[in-house]
Amino acid sequence: MLIAESLYANINLNVDPCDDFYKFACGNWPESHPRPRGTSSWSNAVLLSKEIKKKLKDALEDKSHYNSTAVKKAQNFYTACNDLTFRDEFGLLELRRILEKAGGFPMISKHWDKDEYNWVDAYIYTDIKIRDSRKTFLTETDKNDWRYRKEEDTLRNKIKQRIKRLKTDHTDEELDKDIDDLFALERSILNLKKDGYFYEGPDEINTTLEELEEEYPNVSHRFPTLF
């Protein structure tokens, strides 16, 4: 009904469809639906999508008119997704669980054991569980450049705050030392890249699990379910 009413409102009855069918079918659209500033696309489909989303939002937020179990579950899910405090806490707990399963993280726990840690296993596991994660965070900028120093200071603060939200066992002084070590490692990686030690090729290289096992024979099968 909503679609039919919208389509009918766009018709310009003053135009003969045999002369110009487009103006007949859509002639009233530009006048009755002026495109808002800042929009690159504006059409009946966009308006209908906005209207449907609004009605869906109203239905999910109105808990007084729906008794369906399915609707109530959807409303609970919607409420949980919009609870930013709960979402942040749950997300951080899940991230800590992933890191612990990957062998732990020294900036979080004082009980991390480097002798039990396999960085290849950890890399594979976290890369699968945390998609699109950045492998390094410093750019090839002169460290004496003010933009570099500003970027580094910002990153240091972000790292420290996020580690704290993961309920770290370390003091501020210990975290600062760990962050210093982290940036030193990043700089050494950048230096290797500048010296041409890294392979310059396509972003993705297709390979098989068998080929990976041959290249990294010491990788344990601690996470067989991932494959």
From TrEMBL:
InterPro entries: MetalloPept_cat_dom_sf, Peptidase_M13, Peptidase_M13_dom_2, Peptidase_M13_N. PROSITE patterns: NEPRILYSIN. Residues 17-219 form the Peptidase M13 N-terminal domain. GO terms for biological process: protein processing. GO terms for cellular component: plasma membrane. One of its GO terms (molecular function) is metalloendopeptidase activity. It comes from the Eukaryota. Belongs to the peptidase M13 family. This is Peptidase M13 N-terminal domain-containing protein. The lineage of its organism: Eukaryota, Metazoa, Ecdysozoa, Arthropoda, Chelicerata.
